[in-house]
Write a structure and sequence with these properties.
By secondary structure, the protein is α/β, with parallel strands linked by helices. The chain folds into 2 domains: 2-107 and 223-290, 3-Layer(bba) Sandwich (FAD/NAD(P)-binding domain), CATH 3.50.50.60; 111-219, 3-Layer(bba) Sandwich (FAD/NAD(P)-binding domain), CATH 3.50.50.60. It has helices at 11-22, 45-50, 62-69, 124-131, 147-160, 182-194, 225-228, 271-290, 326-341; strands spanning 2-7, 28-34, 39-40, 59-60, 72-75, 78-82, 87-90, 95-97, 100-103, 108-109, 119-120, 140-143, 167-170, 198-200, 215-217, 221-222, 239-241, 253-255, 260-262, 305-308, 314-318, 321-325. The strands form 7 sheets. It has a 5-stranded parallel β-sheet, covered by helices on one side. The chain has a 5-stranded parallel β-sheet with strand order 11-15-12-13-14. The longest helix has 20 residues, at 271-290.
């Protein structure tokens, strides 16, 4: 029996497993390895930080999904990948063999890997645990100029309220939210200013930079550490994949979400791509195991982004479109709650 191994509990894998509940594939042995029984949904993180949701509300029940889908769940942390020999190594010494491998291990911010002053926002379970120990009056530095940094800064400001010390958002970029239109950037800057968050652009954080005692890394993502300990040839630290989400070097290895470097057109590390990749990934994993034709993934050029702004308001961004207000937050909340209910 062919063995398809799902390495990691990222969004693409969680959705793939959900599909297996509805459409079982009994002639395939499925396994999933993850170091957590639950997979956090990143879209609801700002709401959890701000206090709009409980932590449990953003947790996809990965192990329970596996049990319902007849997917063997293995609790463990992958430390090495031997693509040529078709096995992965776990931190406890186990070696798990596979016929077809899919990687959705997630990623973590780059700066905190070398700067131990920084608390990485990912992996999310570790960050949420550390969040409870942050001291409001000590303030915080938020590193990065993208959506995650804006959402985390605003959520902390809302969470701490009048007890908050100085909050600074620090980015090496010359503009906030690069890649978004000018109206969205202006809305975000104004929102930060309204709650007293100091914005420092063109400011790289190096060893000499005077950080506050509490500093959170929301900078650009780096590939999972296990990828560095493999025989895969990487692109910028990630797994290169073709239009089929397939690694050209090892055609029985696939990658999705933050692990993948899409060769046709490099994509942002955004959850929307992982969600849209899931059905194509499932088809192509099965097709590879069964010797059938693969299906290409065609990423959309523009997608809607809803940026949480601390309180129950948000900014909507898509190509030239920009809007903000409480109604945008309600829209985002409806989407997020619907996504989580789909795993019930």
């Amino acid at each position: 029996m062919m063995h398809i191994l799902l390495a990691g509990g990222g969004h693409a894998h969680a959705l793939l497993i959900r599909e297996l509940i509805q459409n079982p594939q009994p002639h395939i042995r499925w396994s999933c390895i993850s170091d957590h029984n639950h997979s956090p949904y990143s879209g609801m993180l700002p709401g959890v930080i701000a206090g709009h949701y409980q932590t449990a509300e953003l947790m996809i029940p990965l192990q329970a999904l596996c049990e319902r889908a007849n997917v063997e769940f293995m609790h463990g942390s992958i430390t090495a990948i031997n693509a040529g020999e078709k096995n992965v190594q776990l931190s406890d010494g186990r070696n798990i063999t596979f016929d077809v491998l899919s990687l959705a291990l997630g990623a973590s911010p780059l700066l905190s890997r070398s700067d131990k002053r920084l608390l990485p926002v990912k992996p999310l379970p570790d960050f949420l645990h550390a969040l409870e120990n942050l001291t409001p009056h000590a303030g915080a530095d938020i590193i990065g100029g993208g959506i995650a940094s804006v959402e985390v800064a605003l959520a902390l400001a809302f969470r701490w309220g009048k007890n908050a010390g100085k909050i600074r958002l620090i980015s090496r970029n010359h503009a906030l939210l690069p890649g978004h239109n000018a109206r969205v950037q202006k809305m975000a800057r104004q929102t930060l200013q309204n709650v007293g968050i100091e914005l420092l652009l063109n400011t790289p954080v190096n060893a000499d930079f005077n950080l506050q005692a509490q500093a959170i890394d929301c900078s650009a993502a780096a590939g999972h550490a296990a990828l560095q300990n493999s025989d895969l040839t990487l692109e910028q630290g990630f797994i290169p994949v073709n239009d089929f989400l397939q690694n050209p070097q090892f055609p029985r290895i696939f990658a999705a979400g933050d692990n993948a470097h899409f060769l046709s057109r490099p994509l942002a590390k955004a959850g929307v791509y992982a969600v849209r990749e899931a059905p194509i990934l499932l088809h192509n994993l099965l097709a590879t195991a069964q010797g059938k034709k693969l299906r290409p993934y065609q990423p959309q050029r523009y997608f809607l982004t809803l940026i949480a702004c601390g309180g129950k308001n948000a900014i909507a961004s898509r190509s030239w479109f920009a809007a903000s207000g409480a109604w945008v937050w309600k829209w985002k909340n409806k989407i997020d709650q619907g996504f989580m209910r789909s795993f019930d």
